[in-house]
Amino acid sequence: MAAPRKKTVKKVANTPKEDAPDRVVSKAEQAALDQLIMQAMLRYKGEDLELKSKQKELIQLATIAQEYLSSFIVIGYSLQGERAIVTHIPTAKDESALIDLLRCTLIDLANERP
Length: 114
Known about the structure:
Elements (H helix, E strand, L loop, with lengths): L26 H40 L5 E6 L5 E6 L3 H21 L2
């Protein structure tokens, strides 16, 4: 006699009931949301363009300095108070020499302070 077959039950995924209607957004709220999104996008794009502009200016500064110096480190602050560092160190030997020069310069500056 053959073994009885097991009953299989297909499970049906529960579809969400539409008990609560979708929230209707007023025209004023939608306009305010659109304006906030637009402001965020403009601010993001503006910051991105400003950053690219600053990087381009630093590259130009480095190019000018390369005409007169074989290797260099420029450390400073922008007019907006942001840190700016421009370097051109083509070889490991130049890097070692610049680090030694920077170390000596910082020690001299610290010793000259009152």
